[in-house]
Structures are given as C-alpha cells and as structure tokens.
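call fold(seq) -> tokens
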Amino acid sequence: MALPPPSRLFALAFGTLSALALIAAKSGQAQGFVAPQGRSKQLEALAKGPVQALAGLRIELRAKKRVPEKKDLEAPKAGAEQKRPSAKASSSLLRIDLQHPSRMRVEFRRAEKMPPERIWILDGTKHWHCEADGAHLLLRGDSAKEMEALFALAMSLAHWDQLAPGAELRSEKGILLSHAKLGSRQLRVRRSACAWQIGEQRYRLVGRHGQLPRHLIGEAQSFELLRFEPGLHFLETRFDPKQLGKEELRTLRQGVPEPNFRAPKLERQKGFSYLELTDPGSWPMRLQKVHELGMALFQARQLPAGLPIYTSTGKLWIPFQGPAGKAAQAPPGQQRQELGPGLVLVLHCRATMPAGQKLLAKRLLAALRRMGRKPAGPLMLRPHVLPGDEVPGPKTQVLLRGELRVRD
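ret:
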C-alpha cells in the first residue's frame, strides 16, 4: 500500500524518518497522547496527532544472514558508498502481525507463495513455537530471546516507542532517543538519519520504503522492509497457538510433506505400540529381523504404524497398531511395549547410520537447548529402508529421519 508522507513537524524533529504511524485510524476513533514534561514544542505538536499504529498492523520483512561488521550511529563519511545487503546471503520472508501492546505472530517462509515453515506466537510474556499441524511448544532460552529481539524491531518500525502513553523523547546531537514502557517491556531506541539502535542491536539504514528505511543492516543479520500496513484488527485466535484455524491448516498441509534437512521441525506424535529387540548392527541382519517380526504381526492381524525405529540406546523398535476399533496385541512369544503421545523434534539427513546418528543427535539437542527444553527419551532414527529394498552396505548413505521427544 502507498505510504503517506510525514508531517513537516515530524521531518524537523526526526530528520528523514517516517511519521507513517501517525495517520488517522480507519475505525475513526483517534487515541489521545499526552506529551511528557520537557519535550520540545515540535515534539509536543507531533504527539497530539491521531495514533493509528497502536491498533493492529502487519509488517513483511526479508531477513538475511550476513558477515558481521561493526557500525555505529555516526553519519557516513562524505562520498562513502553504502552497499545494499548481498543477494547471495541465505534469506527468509517474515510476515509479522502485531497487536498493541504485547502480541505478535511471525510466519517464516522461504518464498512469498510458499506455506510457512514455522510460526512464532508471542502472547504477553509467553513465547510459542508452532507448526502447521497444530503442534506447539512453549519456548525458553535463546529462542525466546530471538523472539523478543524481533518484537523490539517490529515495535520500533511501528514507532511504538514514541507513541505509547508516557513515552520519553529527547534529542542529542542529531540523534533521537526514546524510551517507552509497553506492558512489561522496556523499549529503548536511538535514531539518526543513517542508523538505528534498538536495545543492544545496531543497524545501518540504506534506502527508503516510502518514508521508512528500506534496509536495516545489522552485524549478524539484515532486514529489508517489503510491506507496512497499519490500522488492522485481528481476531483473538490469531495469537492463540491452540486455535490455529481449520481452513488455514488445510492450506498449510496441502501435498505430501518433504523431508526437512535445513532446520528441526516440531511435530505432534501419536502414541503407538512396538516390539523391542537389540539392534543386530548390520543391514542384512536388521532387514531379516524386520521381515520376521513383520510377518508375525501380519499373522496376528496387526497393522504397521510407521517405519522401524533404531534408538541411540542400541534398540530396534517395530511400531504397530491393532485393526480398526481394536487394541493392539503382540504376537505369541512377544511382549508389547507402549509409547504415549507427545511432541517430537524432527530432522532428516542422508548419511550412514553411525554418521547420521551423530549428526542428528548434535543438531536436535542443540535445537532443544535453544528452546530451553530437555529431551524425553533417546534419539530415534527411522531409515527409509525396508525388506525388499536393496541392502545398504556399511558405507551406503541412506535417508534418515531423526526424532527426539521433548520433555513437557
């Protein structure tokens, strides 16, 4: 949508920064704003304007990882060329929905028309990781900190640090300093014509999207502003991880899911019965045991419940279930084991079994630590190898699905 031009007062007070947040609300009811003591006349006049951005708004960004570099809030030297972020850097599209004062939903996509790879929801002080199938997990640790940093960036783009009641603003040598309390959060932003500092994160500004920065280039990551749409009103369910809409789920789950090699994915796993034995250790013996127990389950009128599982504790599990409407029963001479429903982190790789187990364990455990959570059981490997397939050799790389249960 077209961005409205800033007011003359805003341009005087903020240099080239935007007053996009200060247009009239579509709902027609403008919210008042009381200027704190000590503010300049220009800022006082600005503060009396209507506040649309304190309703809901949508921001779309392209996020790119980049080589670290140090920049500060000083103006660039005369004649110095400001380079845009490299197009070769890995990137993702972020759709951010904000609801004042402390709600955010972030959808991560590889491309514009692709379904979200994952969803983050912030509701007050709770941080949620969500998947398209409805699986959701309360985040802690580094992942929660990443969400807070992204929320601070989105709030600064919306100018909530300037528009919130009681916000403090002052100017020092061409730099605007703001401090606002938004719910339980403190937001501090330093703005100049060439740079922003949001909390501890510093960004160079390159280009303009209307009157907003086009690029915010940080030390480890850069953001390109693609869309800014204020004056929206979201349903309560938009920020509730337990209420992902059925129509939305159908859209997100079209087609057969592809193996995820890039990043662990959260899934809600149903409980299942299984037969347990010691992993024979070689592919010929493994496939022979899977065939023997599969035939025994077939003769007992039991149904398969997924690929065989090889655990990091040296066990082989054969998942199965009973026929429709009936409980699972182990074949004669076998003991039925049970694994209840739960959340699992899933990641795929192509490797030999020993190398794949080491790689998947490292990446899945690292992902759990970032979420501030602990595993609830051994690593489970599901090789895409079944009796009747070509028998892999010791050095043959196979497609492996790694699963790690998440402790509640």
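The first helix runs from residue 8 to 14.
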